[in-house]
Structures are given as C-alpha cells and as structure tokens.
What we know:
Elements: E1 2-9, H1 15-34, E2 39-43, E3 51-56, E4 59-64, E5 73-81, H2 85-94, E6 103-107, E7 113-114, H3 118-122, E8 130-138, H4 148-164, E9 168-173, E10 181-186, E11 189-194, E12 203-212, H5 215-223, E13 232-237, H6 241-245
Antiparallel strand pairs: 1-5, 1-6, 2-5, 3-4, 3-13, 6-10, 7-9, 8-12, 8-13, 9-12, 10-11
Amino acid sequence: MKYLAFIGTEGAMPEEAVAVMNRGFPAYLEEIDRRQLWRLGRELDLPHTAATVRVRDGETLVTDGPFLETKEHVAGIDLFEVSGLDEAIEIEAMSPVAQFLPFEIRPFRQGPRLGPGVDAFGDHDDSAGIPYLLIVWAGGIPAALLDEPAVLQETESWRQDLDARGAYVLGGALGGPETSTTIRFRDGQMQLIDGPFLDIDQFIDGVDVVRCADRGQALALAATHPFARYHAIEVRSFYSEAAHQGPQPAG
C-alpha cells in the first residue's frame, strides 16, 4: 500500500536538533534502501510563500499565505510503499525527524497517480521545472452541493491531461481524516494519535505535485483544479534551488 506522510512543524528547528537529524539520516536511508521500500521525501518552502486559490461563480480568488493560520503547518511530505499501517508507522518512527516533529500518515484512496518525472522529483532534480504542492483543503461545503464521485472523475481527467503535458509528478485523493495516524515523540516515547496532527475542522482531501515555470503558472493551474470550485487549493513550492534562482523552463 502507498501512504503519504505530512511532516508538521512550528518553525525553524534549533541547531542541535538539526545536527541530530543530519547524523541520523545516513543510517535511516540505508535501512529504507535495504528493505526495498519505495520512498521519496521533499521539504516545502516556508508557509509565507504560499497562496490559496478558490474559484467561485467562475471567478478566481487568490489570497496570499497558507489556507490555515495555525501554529503548526505542513513542512514536507514523504511517499512510501509498505505492507500496511503498522509498517508505515515503524518506518516513519525510525526517521530522525520524527524525534522532533509530528508525522501524520494517510493512505491514498486509490493509486496514487505517478507521472514520468516522479523519480527526478524524488532525487531533487528540478531542471524540468519548479515543483509545487497543491493541497486540497476540504470542509464547510454541504454534501448536497458537491457530487464528489463526479468531481473525482473530473479531477482524474485533469491529472491525465497534465500527465500528458509532462507537468504532473504525483498525487491523488487521500483517505478521510478518520484514516489518519499521527506519530509524536514525547520525552523519547512514541505516542500514536488517531487523526490528523492539526486538530481543526478542515482536513486535507487530496494532494497533487506539479511542475511549473513559476508561481504565476502554478496559481493558474490550481485554478483549473476541479475541486477549486468547492474547496480551497493551497499552493506552495517545494524547497528548490531552482525556485530561489528565478524562473526555470517547464519541460
């Protein structure tokens, strides 16, 4: 089964914590490779670089900043394939990052869709374009106003089109918040919490990673996401040398 993990954070880590994580990574990655668990992980840029896109009555509304103004926020993602939830918890709890930051583990409903550029993305090769994460934040829309199966089908067609254009990296619909398991360490002891790491009414319904030439193109693309008509799409770039050096060609 393929799972996605969201890494949470409240901000910059102390230097000593960063040093501990850096020392632990080689052994952790070696173990992942030894067990042949397909995995990638990428860090997101800071929340203030985000924008939130909604489409209402045919009009695109863009607000600067993340969808949520909370103390904790999503700092990155891991994608991996394991036998089930128990192994997912075991693998993520081994990460040196988990000693300091919460990990929310969520299964994909189906899939996910993996584009041809997924390996390059996992290798931090952003020469084909800047990678952006599109987060579908759900909640607050009455079920009667949303034909979810129809919109999910429309979204899959949207992904197929981007895939054919070489702009799609990976993504898919996630299990609901009730399928989430959050790992937190307290005084060296692992705690497992049912539910997302953010205790709020809204929840992440799905994610898509796309490659774009720049932020403007990413926002325009997010406005074409079928769920933008009903929910909010948070757009944030992954940390990338390309993103910090200016626009790059979108392959």
